[in-house]
Amino acid sequence: MRAAMKRVFEDCRAGSLAQGSGRGLASNRAAITNGLAVALFLLCAVAPAHAQSLGQGLAAFKRQDYVTASRVFIPLAERGNVAAQSYLGFLFETGRGVPQNYTEAAMWYRRAAEQGDARAQYSLGLLYDRGQGVPQDIVEASKWLNLSTAASPPRVRESRARIRDAVTTKMTRGEIAQARLRALEWAPSRER
Fold first, then answer.
1. Is the pLDDT of residue 191 over 80?
2. Are 5 and 42 in contact (CB under 8 A)?
């Protein structure tokens, strides 16, 4: 597209410089105007493909248009957008708009969880508890559920604490201590 726009601008410039070649001023203005119109059209035609925003993905998600939501979330998630990663994890976990794939879900949840997203931490903890998309690991499950509970807003903290506590009942004292230590040593990291 840049090459096409460059040619249009070069043609316009060449047309304005060719006044001595028999072209009139009106002809040159028309060439410039037409060239600018073509360039503007090309710019507008391509811009929406790159301008997908998280808001557009969320709107599609709320409409239950999961295919569109996944198409919006994937490039955003690949660029490190935490919310897009978390939503994409959910789409892969549930098979909405994309083929169900627990391994993909775990990967997207992990990327968001490592950046501190409480929803992704909660979902990743549940995947570790069930062994879906990741090896079953009760200590890692408890770590993520502890982090999620601590970072959750008050309206969901109690329900997440109940789930965390239910997972803890399956653990030995040593496993509980290990999970708490992992949670204490954890620090969020930003993707580059």
1. yes
2. yes
